[in-house]
Amino acid sequence: MVSIADARKYCMQLPEAEEHPHFVKAAFKVKKKIFATLDEQNRTLVVKFTPEEQYAFSAFDNTIIHSVGGAWGTQGWTIIDLKRVPQETFRDAVLTSYRNVAPKKLAALV
After folding, report:
1. What is the total count of domains within the chain?
2. What CATH number is attached to the domain comprising 89?
3. Range of the domain at 79
4. Quick check: helix, strand or coil at residue 23?
């Protein structure tokens, strides 16, 4: 389980991460690119994976980590259930998403 506060704290500790409003959610960005969105009401985090990463993370337990529906999901956007995800899996997922969107120099720092 990952709390909302812990999710926010972990996302914000990544190099040059910023938090911005994104409709009714919080978006975590690096260099103006979203690597995660936080839905506090549903206690979920959406991250950006490659299709291969999405498959691998979903294989862990697709009731905890699964594709967003429709075209967004086919582009790698993936939902994580913060109420049920183990801390280590959560951290790996966020870090993977960050590395997917961050410039190479920043991604290499983590």
Report:
1. 1
2. 3.90.1150.30
3. 4-107
4. coil
